[in-house]
């Protein structure tokens, strides 16, 4: 019950934030969820408490997602040993499309499947792609709507900041 | 000696290229991707063959600006009914250059561009500006555009002949996502022209006062202004097996008394991840301009006189088919996506009150068979995204 | 000119509509539900310059002109 109220609060904040902003700084608990991952097992957000999590929503049909993924892969290999991980939630209805895409744009970080958009709704995703930076205490600290070349520098800045906390 | 259709070709070409560019400036709140677009186009029908290349190169500068440049050629080899009636077959070339800048700011894309079109007796320049704004969670897009053109009309064989024609276009469009499978759009466009709007070569005919079985020619005389309004509605619907159907209706009306209707229906079918087939059918009809007549009773019977078949009462049908091959995330060095399209359109025009004076046989003026013709348009295009 | 005043009114209406921000009606197609709209089969103009060329072909032979374009739809990204 408390989790859903919290989720509603986060969702409300996420929803009313102006979609015109490319990035937002906030501090609210990130709603928990469990999704099937590419490796076959289910991954739960709470299990990553203690790590900095970059939660990214992407789709095979989204151009800017294609641009940012290789750059995210670089950040993943650079910072994963410092207690950082990326959870990339794929919203394609058809998993095949995601696989075909990943064949051409291979990345090493975990991919989660959200074909029914339950987590996308939970996080009130307002743009594609959307990135949420979650700190070691499970709080959502930074929000990014869309991707423009140059955002990866902001991502890196924020990762370094959260990893040091 | 040059022909009549060319005037329309050039004037409408420049006008049109500017207008068409409005429609391409924004897909979403993202700039068009860097690409090279090479097209071979060919029109073959009604006694004319017009073909040529079109090359467009687009490159982004930073994350907010995209530049584009296009070179387009029409190589005309013409012996159309107008030419055969009053002149002789000719060959000619029209060259067109366009430069454009697109600027992305938040959810808006601002576009600015310039087009210059030149041939031996006509020069057209157009400047256009448009703004495209996305809102309502990306479900709605509003586009507003403005274009201004100024043309210089010349005449082969008469170096001192020089007239001007100016144009203004005002465009407003709204595109709305209705469901996750459907999209509708409304477009409104007002165009005003002023100046020398007629063709310096084209002639009208009137009954010979001395011989009622013959006719004589006199140059056409158009009004010096024209204002037109067009409204179009379009809808697309996604079919679950990876296909789509679309429909469009456009109503046109102008101050020359012409009203036109266009209806188009299209179907696109995705065969697999690479190949798509498409087909469409289009119907067009218009009534004649107030001052149009195929045959005037005597010389100078009206203030304004036109025998341009484009201003007559006509109907047109087009059947089109095409195939598109797409290769995403190619293995080619430097190429992100490749798209090859082959599109064929068969056009048929039937005139209700324009007669073919070149038809073999002896006809009294005004009793020649009504003119009609068909044409095949071929487009082979290669788009490389890099 | 009447057609121009109709145009001005429509432009103002569209601008007003565009300017209105967060209202009581929320977008009902979410950004993550745009997969079908982003499919190339749903593209308004897929063939690049080949499409604008066709408008040019008709304009040279028909009196009607204008309102040929269309933008919007697609993935709605960013």
From TrEMBL, chain A:
Does this UniProt record's set of keywords contain Signal?
Answer: yes
Entry-linked Pfam families: Redoxin
Q: Which residues form the signal peptide?
A: 1-23
Q: Sorted alphabetically, which CDD domains does this protein's record hold?
A: TlpA_like_family
Name its GO BP terms in alphabetical order: cytochrome complex assembly
GO MF terms on file? disulfide oxidoreductase activity
Q: Which GO terms describe its cellular component?
A: cell envelope
Keywords in UniProt for this one? Answer: Cytochrome c-type biogenesis, Redox-active center, Signal
Q: What is its main location?
A: other
Ranges for the Thioredoxin domain? 24-164
Q: Where in the cell is it found?
A: Cell envelope
The protein, known as: Thiol:disulfide interchange protein
Which source organism?
A: Marinobacter salsuginis
Automatic annotation (TrEMBL), chain C:
Keyword list (alphabetical) reads: Signal
The answer to whether UniProt assigns keyword Signal to this entry is: yes
Q: Which residues form the DUF4266 domain?
A: 29-78
Q: Where is the signal peptide?
A: 1-20
Record InterPro entries? DUF4266
Coiled-coil annotated residue ranges, if any: none
Q: Which domain of life is it from?
A: Bacteria
PROSITE patterns, per the entry: PROKAR_LIPOPROTEIN
Q: Does the keyword Signal apply?
A: yes
Task: Tell me the protein's name.
Answer: DUF4266 domain-containing protein
The species this protein was found in: Marinobacter salsuginis
Q: Tell me the classification of the organism that encodes this protein.
A: Bacteria, Pseudomonadati, Pseudomonadota, Gammaproteobacteria, Pseudomonadales
């Amino acid at each position: 019950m408390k989790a859903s109220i919290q989720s509603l609060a986060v969702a409300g904040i996420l929803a009313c934030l102006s979609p015109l902003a490319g990035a937002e700084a906030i501090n609210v608990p990130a709603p928990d969820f469990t999704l099937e991952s590419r490796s076959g097992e289910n991954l739960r957000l709470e299990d990553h408490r203690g790590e900095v999590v970059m939660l990214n929503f992407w789709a095979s049909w989204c151009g800017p997602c294609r641009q940012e993924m290789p750059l995210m892969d670089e950040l993943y290999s650079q910072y994963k040993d410092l207690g950082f991980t990326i959870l990339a939630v794929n919203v394609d209805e058809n998993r095949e499309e995601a696989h075909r895409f990943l064949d051409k744009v291979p990345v090493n970080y975990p991919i989660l499947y959200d074909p029914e958009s339950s987590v996308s709704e939970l996080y009130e995703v307002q743009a594609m792609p959307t990135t949420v930076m979650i700190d070691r205490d499970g709080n959502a600290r930074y929000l990014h709507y869309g991707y423009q070349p140059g955002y990866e520098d902001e991502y890196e800045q924020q990762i370094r900041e959260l990893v040091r906390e | 000696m040059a022909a009549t259709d060319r005037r329309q070709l050039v004037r409408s070409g420049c006008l049109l290229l500017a207008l068409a560019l409005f429609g391409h400036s924004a897909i979403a709140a993202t700039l068009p991707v860097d690409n090279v677009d090479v097209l071979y186009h060919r029109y073959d029908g009604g006694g004319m063959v017009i073909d040529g290349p079109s090359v467009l190169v687009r490159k982004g500068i930073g994350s907010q600006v995209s530049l584009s440049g296009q070179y387009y050629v029409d190589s005309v080899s013409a012996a159309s009914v107008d030419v055969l009636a009053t002149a002789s077959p000719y060959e000619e070339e029209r060259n067109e250059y366009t430069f454009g800048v697109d600027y992305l700011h938040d959810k808006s894309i601002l576009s600015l561009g310039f087009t210059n079109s030149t041939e031996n007796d006509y020069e057209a320049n157009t400047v256009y500006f448009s703004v495209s704004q996305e809102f309502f969670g990306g479900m709605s897009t509003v586009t507003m555009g403005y274009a201004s053109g100024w043309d210089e009309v010349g005449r082969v064989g008469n170096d001192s002949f020089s007239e001007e024609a100016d144009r203004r276009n005002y465009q407003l469009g709204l595109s709305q996502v209705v469901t996750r499978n459907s999209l509708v759009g409304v477009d409104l466009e007002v165009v005003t022209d002023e100046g020398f709007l007629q063709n310096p070569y084209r002639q009208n005919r009137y009954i010979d006062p001395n011989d009622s079985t013959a006719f004589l020619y006199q140059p056409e005389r158009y009004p010096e202004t024209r204002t037109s309004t067009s409204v179009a509605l379009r809808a697309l619907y996604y079919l679950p097996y990876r296909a789509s159907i679309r429909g469009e209706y456009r109503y046109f009306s102008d101050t020359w008394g012409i009203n036109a209707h266009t209806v188009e229906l299209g179907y696109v079918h995705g065969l697999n991840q690479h190949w798509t087939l498409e087909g469409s059918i289009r119907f067009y009809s218009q009534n004649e301009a107030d001052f149009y007549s195929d045959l005037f009773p005597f010389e100078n019977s009206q203030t304004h006189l036109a025998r341009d078949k484009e201003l007559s009462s006509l109907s047109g049908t087009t059947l089109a088919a095409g195939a598109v091959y797409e290769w995403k995330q190619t293995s080619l060095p430097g190429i992100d996506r490749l798209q090859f399209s082959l599109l064929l359109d068969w056009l048929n025009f039937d005139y209700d009150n324009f007669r073919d004076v070149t038809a073999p046989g002896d006809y009294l003026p005004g009793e020649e068979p009504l003119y009609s013709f068909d044409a095949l348009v071929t487009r082979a295009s290669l788009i490389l995204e890099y | 000119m009447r057609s121009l005043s109709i145009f001005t009114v429509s432009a103002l209406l569209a601008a007003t509509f565009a300017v209105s921000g967060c209202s009581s009606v929320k977008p009902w197609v979410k950004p993550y539900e745009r997969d079908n709209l982003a499919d190339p089969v749903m593209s308004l103009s897929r063939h690049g310059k080949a499409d604008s060329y066709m408008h040019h072909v008709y304009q040279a032979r028909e009196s009607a002109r204008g309102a040929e374009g269309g933008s919007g739809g697609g993935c709605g990204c960013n």
